[in-house]
């Protein structure tokens, strides 16, 4: 019996596809990674996932899990060997339980993030994980990469929002860790091992998530800054003024806004003259009411204007205006995609070193790669910038991308030298795998390898991802 036949017998003919039928799943969203598979399968529940894992074990077939296929690091794309089974969790999309007394929600890994947000809202609660791809990414992918997004400043990463997990282990057992406990000090935290492991340690099939009260009032504004240093100073000012109500502070350089205008001319910019070098989207959530939120918002912005932290502010006068501002920010990824590939660097550094990082890295780039254009934007409140670099005028995208290794090394070395990380929220996948050997200490890498060896001794879960080869 071949693996394909065995899978069809286990799941039924309709739940198993060959490489040709599964084509859409074999390349990542940007077409950077393309693979082949022995089969792609759509199990209907956790028991079927476990059975698939056991069957793959008997055939020594690697397993790659894929959710909404919106990741940027190629973690969900199989390699070209055609040996792997691609596990698609789209059928595991049930909301299993909502507990409003405990403020928890238990959902399956194949749920689209937006569906999770809507389930929470229907119960009068907020599930705050929010990112541009929320209409198509899945919760399993969010947990696999420990996704961040635009509300980390207030609510934390996917990890901080997760209380419990259900996981299928590498040998096909089911670990039911769906505990909705905020306190549980009973030994090693297995949950936190699986979150962020990008499918290399186990397969997350469901999660128990934290819920929060829906805010009673919300204020959104677009701000203009005379320098990045002022934007950072404003952030401290807003933290003091808003306390926990500060929910988002998303930075965009003037070149990002120019790109948005170029690619989406129908979407008006809040500052059409684009006279300042830096802009940010600010959001306050308030648990009293709309009037209280607005008064506080205006006071904090007024003080900042008076103290020259801020050049100008456009406060959204309605929900619709606020949403339009958010749409601008959220289409940054699409605007870049339309303009042609650029080099993405999802870095983080301490907020106190952001200015020094940007200024020194910009200067280094111009010295070594004259004319390249920076599209710098992101989650300033978390110290996480998307420090993306596009081709110089007069050079083709292909010529530019040929410099990827050298240019990216310069950016990553700079982030590292500023006490930062080379991957803040997008993960490692295959794209950054070999970089870990350069930026993680031998001790840290050795501990990671031992964990992998303990949980997946045969190396069948998402091989070739996250961990660099031992010799690298
Ligand atoms: C965002 O913050 C995403 O919009 C994508 O993390 C970042 O396109 C990017 O580089
Ligand atoms: Zn981001």
Polypeptide structure, described:
This protein has helices spanning 3-11, 46-58, 113-122, 139-144, 152-155, 190-194, 228-242, 254-263, 290-306, 319-330, 332-339, 354-368, 397-401, 404-417, 436-439, 442-455, and strands at residues 16-17, 39-41, 63-66, 85-88, 95-99, 104-108, 125-126, 162-168, 174-177, 203-210, 212-213, 217-225, 246-253, 278-286, 312-315, 346-348, 373-379, 384-390. Helices cover 34% and strands 20% of the residues. The chain starts with a helix and ends in a 17-residue tail after the last helix. The model has no long low-confidence stretch (mean pLDDT 97). Among the domains are: 3-88, Uridine Diphospho-n-acetylenolpyruvylglucosamine Reductase, domain 2; 95-213, Uridine Diphospho-n-acetylenolpyruvylglucosamine Reductase, domain 3 (2-Layer Sandwich), CATH 3.30.465; 217-333, Alpha-Beta Plaits (2-Layer Sandwich). It is of the alpha+beta class and 472 residues long. It contains 16 helices and 18 strands. The protein has a 7-stranded antiparallel beta sheet with strand order 15-12-14-13-17-18-16, with helices on both faces. Bound molecules: (2R)-2-hydroxypentanedioic acid and zinc ion. (2R)-2-hydroxypentanedioic acid (2HG) is lined by residues 132, 332-333, 336, 344, 378, 386, 388.
